Amino acid sequence: MTLLVLWRHGQTEWNAIRRIQGQTDVPLSAVGIAQAEESAPRLAAMQPTVLVSSDLRRASATAAALSALTGLTPTYDTRLRERGFGEWEGLDHPAAGSRWPEAFARWRSGEEVEAAGVEEVDAVAKRMVAGLLEAVDAAGPDAVVVAATHGAAARMAAVALLGLPLTYASSFGALHNCHRTVLHRHPVRGWMLEGHNLP
């Protein structure tokens, strides 16, 4: 049985002040580094066989904590990056909401956003799923694949892999820093959810 673990990166300074990151390459804070080091042993206990990561520093540094314990060499894939938030990146929520009130309200309610260069949900899901399935298929049967990635992108990927409408992504709830979503691939039923937002 193949396991896929979608592991969100540790906290950044922008996370702490609710500044929108998207694909801006913000490093882990001291808190985020500690979170990765605390979380890594729990993932190591799952005996991962493959470690892949977004190339953004907050994800790659999180992956490095698991690499140090397991000896796995991570591979980096731009397809595992966070959703691009266009002109919103670098703004806090009140600033983005005041400049794009209607679009921001749609985003907050889990609807599609067609403003400010925000990446479409379908595009995020497609690139994430392509990158994840490539890693899973290359790993072979009974692999445990850990993907160090980002919160919104991970939720969209999970929903897409489960065959659910992408509008369900907001129903999953936020994936906290250094928490994970775990899926397994059943030989007949396909991808199945084992747990979401696990520490």
TrEMBL record:
Q: Which SMART domains match?
A: PGAM (SM00855)
Q: Which InterPro entries match?
A: His_Pase_superF_clade-1, His_PPase_superfam, PG/BPGM_mutase_AS, PGM_Phosphatase
Catalytic residues at 9, 82
Q: Where does substrate bind?
A: 8-15, 58
Instruction: Note the Gene3D superfamilies from the entry.
Output: Phosphoglycerate mutase-like
User: What Gene Ontology cellular-component terms does the record carry?
Assistant: cytoplasm
Question: What is the protein name given in its UniProt record?
Answer: Fructose 1,6-bisphosphatase
Enumerate the transmembrane spans.
none
Ranked from the top, the taxonomy reads: Bacteria, Bacillati, Actinomycetota, Actinomycetes, Micromonosporales
- A Pfam family hit: His_Phos_1
| SUPFAM superfamilies given in the database record | Phosphoglycerate mutase-like (SSF53254)
* GO molecular function (one): phosphatase activity
